[in-house]
Amino acid sequence: MKQVAYFHPALRVLHWLMAAAIIAMLFIGVVMVSTVSSLHSLLVSIHKPLGLMILVLVLVRLWLRFYTATPALPATLAVWQRAMAHLSHWALYAMMIAQPLIGWGMLSAAGYPVTVGGWLLPPILPVNNDTYALLRPLHSLVALALFATVMLHLAAALFHALVLRDGVFESMSGTRKR
Predict the structure, then answer these.
(1) What pTM did the predictor assign?
(2) How far apart are CA 5 and CA 167, in angstroms?
(3) Where are the transmembrane segments (predicted)?
(4) Dihedral-angle region of residue 149 (phi above 0 means left; psi in -120 to 50 means alpha; beta otherwise)
């Protein structure tokens, strides 16, 4: 593939759309599980379709990622930094796929119908209390890991943008390199 300075425009749009959706989803999830008010139903009605949207968008994003040229990391980065960058990106992709599937599986195992926009989605697991008991804390654990990884990703992006000024941030923001 040819060498490029910026990510494909579709990848950039998906990146920023998904960043907003994931941060919103994490905060909605925290508030949702900590309230028994009438707000709970509203948050659940947002949480499910947003999770499904994130799942679909990450699959589209991965497809684009494999079929478009991507900018190389700066040669000035140490080998361990390159390895951590790649590892953190693949961890983010894995969690962005796993988290909605765990949620869907959790609801399926609990016997709850999964509806999105009036559409009934098929269960992906049979009703089983033991499976639900495993998936419920796993959904929370992956959410915490996703939050921590997103924060590390944000810290690294800011480090590249404000300290190193090496073009890594600009390759995703689409702004001109200095």
Answers:
(1) 0.92
(2) 8
(3) 12-33, 53-80, 101-121, 141-164
(4) alpha
